[in-house]
Task: structure prediction
Amino acid sequence: MKNKLSFISIFTLCIALSLTACGGKQASNTESKNTQTEAGSEASGKSDSRLDDLYQQENQLFADHADVWNKVFGMMNKSDADSNGNYADYLAGTVESNKNSFTDDELKTLNEDIETIRKIEEQIAELENKNTSSDDNKKDSSKASSVFSDFSGEDFDGNKVDDSLFSGNAVTVVNFWFTGCKPCVAELSKLNELNDAIKSMGGEVVGINTETFDGNKTAIKEAASVLESQGVKYRNLSIDSSSAAGKYASEILAFPTTILVDRNGNIVGEPMLGGIDNKDNYDALMKQIQSVIDADSTNK
Result:
């Protein structure tokens, strides 16, 4: 479901943060073009341009009705997602299962937007099917695995952090969030509880707040204040927006997103979408964590 949800996170960042990450989807398409052969680059460029246009059409719908769509985004979680499912159906299902949370006018707006999105998605699917190849899948997998291979950043106290962060843990739980994201803030205390629970197992929780990129002091101060108010003790980091991890963050799924990283800096399994204050999400994440720890023990 990555292609269908990545622009949700980009849109949310644009509305709530006014970050330059708004170009994340376009940057992703540019990177894709750079991996293709010279012979196919011209045709691919046209296809990518059309995809960008279609994504922007969907983003504009979200922008036009930002208040009600932000409510929907906050209700999404991993247990709802079907990576092989229809995106419009996914949105419709989220709305339907939470319909008592919306007014009649809001439901009318959402359902009209969803039908428009359904038509746009048909065009997107056709273009993406043309662009899909086994080579692209291999490159995407390699890219994901190398995100943290040369990692660097600073914690909010200014202490330098590098990829030894990961080599020192059997598993590192990396949570991507931003200060203006209510579901992100709502799960912070649970993440702190998780950090305490997995320390003895060789694990650690680390937060990456996307507003604090490039050492943004104002954003770091605001994020630190929120963390303190929630009793959070685990490390939160500021990273370079142009780094591999920074670029990865601009393309992640709907916020909050949590991933697992093994001792070698490889991302393991699928991202966790939604807050772990949701019991189903918490239980699913703990199961994944235990699996990574067991694999680490076996490989020693």
